[in-house]
């Protein structure tokens, strides 16, 4: 006898299958430690946060700061414990019945499926082609079917790293009968956003994270941008005190000192270009262009051996071969100068053996 939903039996728990090594270049994290740079400011701000209370004016401060950073009104924002939690809330809010489903591209962010199935929302995928592009008509056919309640577009796409065709995104927004979620987790690296369309398209929602460009993967902070009516609807499924005051205070401090992170991101883009150009010089590597802080690459028939070799030399990468389109592909996070150079040296050593 089970006391839980029958569809959870075969779901499995969410896990991350990467090796833990000294040089973690597998999870698209930042090498910048916010606490190291803002220790004094964090401590001062936290002293003014009464942790014995459920709420405090730090929430208003954070909402105002986030509004100024994003350039959207405060009532168009909602935030929580990472973008993943916001996905969970959104999926829960749009699910109408057991036939409801979302549509996404494949391969894309792996946990769309995990979180949708957790709330009983189905999900259908349209495969990308070898150029990481997709057929617009087939996608619209899926989104405009009777039981579809949500369309998910990851832009730039993770794990392929490319920006989706802008004209196709606009067509989907304009011609779909459902909510359109655009995942802009890597916005600060791509510079491409659709937030300015929110006021004219009531079916559009943007999701972003502080895990990448703001170096706060362990802090867990993400947010949604949409029109006030959509924000109110999503709040109906959220817990009342969903984000602790310490996280709110930390994020407000980070936004007050955002130049530190934006300057670091500019360095990441330079490191990315350097890494890309150097990797292209190493045969037989094939390296894909990217609009993110990671690179997708393959060594063909040598990929598995290369992965083992790099792991043995204390480098953690993300293997992506579970998807047929990414067979023999690995993903590497743009890291510090030291880690990037060490990674390149081991790549060269492997092929010179």
Q: Summed up, what is this model?
A:
With 353 residues, the chain is an alpha/beta fold. The protein has two domains: 21-32 and 259-352, Alpha-Beta Complex (Aspartate Aminotransferase, domain 1); 37-257, Aspartate Aminotransferase, domain 2 (3-Layer(aba) Sandwich).
Count the DSSP helices: 12
Compute the CA-based radius of gyration: 21 Å
Low-confidence regions: none
**DSSP strand content:** 15-25%
What's the order of the H and E elements? Answer: EHHEHEHEHEHEHEEHHHEEHEEEH
Structural class: alpha/beta
Describe the structure.
- This protein is globular.
- The relative contact order is 0.16.
- The protein has helices spanning 34-46, 58-70, 82-94, 111-118, 136-143, 166-175, 187-190, 228-235, 245-256, 258-280, 303-312, 337-352; strands at 23-24, 77-80, 101-106, 122-127, 148-154, 179-183, 204-209, 222-225, 286-287, 294-298, 315-316, 318-319, 329-333.
- The chain contains 12 helices and 13 strands.
- 39% of the residues lie in helices and 16% in strands.
- The mean pLDDT is 95.
- It folds into 2 domains: 21-32 and 259-352, Alpha-Beta Complex (Aspartate Aminotransferase, domain 1), CATH 3.90.1150.10; 37-257, Aspartate Aminotransferase, domain 2, CATH 3.40.640.
- The chain has 353 residues and is an alpha/beta fold.
- A 7-stranded mixed sheet has the order 2-8-7-6-5-3-4, with helices on both faces.
- Helix 1 packs across helix 9 and helix 10 (258-280) runs parallel beside helix 12 (337-352).
């Amino acid at each position: 006898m089970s006391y839980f939903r029958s569809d959870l039996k075969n779901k499995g728990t969410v896990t991350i299958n990467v090796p833990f090594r000294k040089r973690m270049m597998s999870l698209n994290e930042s090498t910048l430690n916010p606490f190291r740079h803002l220790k004094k400011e964090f401590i001062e701000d936290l002293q003014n946060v009464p942790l014995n209370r459920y709420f405090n004016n730090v929430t208003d401060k954070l909402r105002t700061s986030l509004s100024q950073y994003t350039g959207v009104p405060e009532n168009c924002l909602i935030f929580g414990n990472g973008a993943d939690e916001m996905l969970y809330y959104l999926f829960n809010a749009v699910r109408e019945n057991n036939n409801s489903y979302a549509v996404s591209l494949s391969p894309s962010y792996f946990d769309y499926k995990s979180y949708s199935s957790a709330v009983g929302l189905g999900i259908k995928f349209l495969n990308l082609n070898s150029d990481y592009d997709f057929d617009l008509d087939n996608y619209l056919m899926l989104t405009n079917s009777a039981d579809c309640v949500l369309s998910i577009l990851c832009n730039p796409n993770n794990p392929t790293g490319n920006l989706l065709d802008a004209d196709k995104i606009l067509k989907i927004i304009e011609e779909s009968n459902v909510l359109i979620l655009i995942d802009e987790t890597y916005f600060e690296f791509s510079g491409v956003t659709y937030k300015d369309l929110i006021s004219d398209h009531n079916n559009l929602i943007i999701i972003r994270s502080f895990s990448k460009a703001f170096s706060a993967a362990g802090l867990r902070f993400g947010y949604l941008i949409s029109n006030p009516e959509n924000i109110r609807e999503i709040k109906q499924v959220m817990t009342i005190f969903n984000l602790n005051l310490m996280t709110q205070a930390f994020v407000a401090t980070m936004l007050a000192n955002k130049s530190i992170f934006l300057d670091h991101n500019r360095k990441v883009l330079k490191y990315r270009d350097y890494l890309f150009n150097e990797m292209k010089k190493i045969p037989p590597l094939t390296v894909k262009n990217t609009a993110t802080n990671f690179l997708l690459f393959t060594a063909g028939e040598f990929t598995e051996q290369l992965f083992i070799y790099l792991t043995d030399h204390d480098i953690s990468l993300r293997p992506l071969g579970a998807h047929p389109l990414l067979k023999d592909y690995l993903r590497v996070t743009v890291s510090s100068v030291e880690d990037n150079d060490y990674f390149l040296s081991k790549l060269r050593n492997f092929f010179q053996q």
